[in-house]
Protein 1
Amino acid sequence: MPISFEHVSYIYSKGTPYEYTALKDVCLDIEEGKITAIIGQTGSGKSTLVQHLNALLLPEEGTVHILDRAITASEKPKQLKSLRGDVGLVFQFPEYQLFEETVLKDVAFGPKNFGASEEEAKKRAIHALELVGLSDKYCERSPLELSGGQKRRVAIAGILAMDPKVLVLDEPTAGLDPKGTEAMMTLFHDLNRKHGKTVLIVTHDMEQVFRYCDNVVVMEDGKVRTHTNVESFFRDPAACRDMNILPPALIRMKEMLKENGFDIPEDVLSTAALADCIARQVKNHG
């Protein structure tokens, strides 16, 4: 079941003085079962693109294929509620959307809204909380009493409780400290690798893209500039800089070492492997 955009365009405030074309004839295929990063400068169309995946926005032109559904410009989407159950969209700062008096009620709200019984919704909520690393001791606490990172996990659990096939995350680690960021990205990686979720992540953080993602889409001025796998994308740091993208620290270090005479193979993609490579060459020239 494909996830694809066929000649999709989208215009904000059409017919007004504030009219703005955010997507321009976008054609794109997203690989299922993988983690895909959506990157680009502010205003490039990243968030507009992903909001088409559960019909929060409808294309002005073209067609979006998501799972077994087609969303077109000329036809109102059918089975919209089930689509939004299959495609979970997590906005920036999702913790601002917490509203129930307890964590359990907040996470169970989605399943109940989709027709689950009280008992089933509770069961799914507890399982979702376990997935995000929160034990049942949090169930009766108020969401407002939690730390920022815990609130973020509760909000994501609310999406996971509906068991979506596709998880779309818009800047999911914004505002988190390094420890919280790593924990959150590890969670998304596990959801993909262990639970088979297709994951799309809108991000500005190239370290996250390099460490956790399989593929990368670069948006520029409402169009897809580049779509490739992460390893190929970071193989050419000069091309990244041409797109105003700062390569990850490891890639910059490899580039510097090559400029200073070291032979660094392309398949050296971890700090440990790079350290071993440097040590061998220093030893041979010692």
Protein 2
Amino acid sequence: MLSKYFDLSGGVPSHDTYQRFWNAISPTQFRDSFAEFVECLQKVCSEIISVDGKTIRNSGKEKPLHIVSAWCQNNQMVFAQEKVYETSNEITAIPALLKKLDLHGKIITIDAMGAQRDICQQIIDGGGDYVISLKGNQGTLHEDVVLFLEDEGNSQFQHEENDKGHGRIEKRVAAVSHDIGWLQEIHKWPGLKAIGKVTATVLRKGKETTEVRYYISSLSLDAGRLNGIARKHWGIENQLHWRLDVVFNEDKACIRNDNAAENMDILRKWALAILVGAKDKKDRSVKSLMRRNAMSMAHLIKCFKKISHA
């Protein structure tokens, strides 16, 4: 049936042929092709773009490949990505990634690794805003925010959300303060307008756990909005990284060549974007759609036509 769509006069390509092919492709050019595919979608994406990194455990010759991605929850798609080189880290990769994005009018969410003055300034200069979590890597800034927000009287806005599902009950309480003049006198952080925290309490199988996350933001947001933005940020973990591991078995792939490993990472994300776009009400998940395609060539072709608007 494939002969209707492809010229396989030389036979079906072997494993070694595929290996040579993916090794030979420049990841930069392949990444640029992917960027062209999603370029038009940036115009219709939600205002929130989440940035986070993931290590592909069994990849790379010397060291596992680590990729920082920019994820749009609304489109369920990676808009750009940047490789973290062996002698570097996410702090140098994030600015290069941000240069590939249209930041105007967007809210960029990053974990504590992105709590750097230069990164925040780059987002502000690009016409965007940031909501970035804080940890001990920012020393006195983190300590000052924690001490200030520990006093509930300093929180101008509070908001509570409750969720139940997947065998657990979760309560998230957000608190925000815009009273940061004293903080700016000390730290002079680019564009800073608000600080906040989200306390997440999870009850699962009779065991309760609590985690508190602290945030800085260039937005004059209230607690309800902080709760929503913080929750959406974790979409990059739940909707992207989890799917790459569970649906595509990325961490079990043993591709050692750096070019091939990076190209396959791009291909998985490309395939995920296509599958999400093709999924309908009959498909409970991306994995169920993949199963239907694997069992029926006719369904696969139908899926392909839907994606390509053929």
Protein 3
Amino acid sequence: MKLKGIIFDVDGTMADTEELHRQAFNEAFHEFNLNWHWSKTDYYRLLFISGGKERFKICLEKDKELKSKIIDPHLFIEELHQCKSNHYRKMLSNGHIQLRPGIKRLINEAQDKGLKLGIATSSCLANLKTLINSTLDIDPKEIFNTIISSDNVPDKKPSPIAYQYALAGLGLKPESCVAIEDTQNGNTAALSAGIRTIITTHSYTIDNVFTGASLVTNHLGEAKNTFKTTYGYAYNKSYVDVELLDHIICHHINSSSEFVLPENISNLN
């Protein structure tokens, strides 16, 4: 088997957290008495900017009146983001989220088969810990061999740096790994690090452009909750498992990112 490791994004990939994030942002705005409110349409656009602090900076630049009143913009953004994170983790702790279909199953299978597991996220470690503790009742360090977050890599996706650090932490080459992502920026980041990608879309990313991805589905799937493929070859599989991931990295993608269909594969799922 050529597959040696799987690297997961977190928000939107492991759990459909983006709507909780949006609500937490709005709670923070209310607590700070800001005349800001991010609708679902607003948030869809803002998700093309990786990182909450980065989104705040953009909004603050546009809000000239508010910006003129703030003495220390950096401190303001830090405090606002901390407030938002507190609201978000409270929502997670209250059990307002579950892992997406296939995540727990794939993690368990990968561990059983001795694969290495990594995290490459633009979120912070505290958010990851709360999510994993809330959904799996375990510390993420007991599952993942390396965790790269905004705490140790400030460069956000589509920069490939988080994935490059994840590969270094796993001690693996990019051609032996697969990244599980949900956004256009995440897809670009992983591909730029030389890693094949599986994309699981959701309401905020379903119409993103995933050029170069090996497979695009609505989720990873389960035996009784199979995925729907919008792009790529699923090799007669109805859910993502280790065998499918190994098939994907064993077959060639040429320089134009068009798939070369192996001779023994005739069914496009």
Protein 4
Amino acid sequence: MYAFTYHRPTTVRQAANLLAKHPEAKLLAGGHSLIPVMKLRLASPSAIIDMNHVEGMSGVEVKGRSVVIGAMTRHFEVAASQTLKDVMPALAGVPGSIGDPHVRHRGTIGGSIANNDPNADYPAAVLGLGATIITNKRRILADDFFTGMFSTALEPEEIITKINFPVAKKSAYQKFKHPASGFALVGVFVSKRGSDIRVAVTGAGSNGVFRVPQFEEALKKRFAPKSIEGIAVSPDGLNTDIHASAEYRAHLIGVLAKRALAAA
């Protein structure tokens, strides 16, 4: 690693002030993405701002018809939350397949969303439920938040503090995961909340998570697997790598969407 200064704020305001003072700084949450690239010298931030001692940024809480999850809530905490299991078990099930126990006990929901890895699970849930990302400055709708691979609408000095998920009447997540990393080769999150029907896909798109409007339109008539039979997803814009071709991923999207709808 290159030399850097280490900061340990205890409030969001302190962290934001440090970001303003050190434009090249990086926030440290779980560290599963940041630390490896620093060790490989692919990133050399001038300062590390450790968010692990900031108060009031973790926990799962039901507020009316929404579930609010603090940005620093660990994956295992989300998966183990009985409150979340009672209200929206599909969302509680998402982090259970992330990585391994070591990853789930350190990784955070806010860090995952801010990093926006194209194979990460949480972006599919955030977009698939139409969540709102709350920062120290504003509220950002999920449809406006994810802007591309490893790219989001977050501005400099902006920090995710919590995520607000509307409770869906029906929802489910299915993924085809890499056997070693646990990352999604393809993951599909489906939800129905009144007339708002969403199908979000992770792991397949070259620009990261995306919605499938042709599925959503067909599901307005009936929220069931049969409604999307015969509707093909184009491989254009999908990833091709050593694990799967774009055509195979396009096929998997349909398969996993049907499984998710059956589960929902």
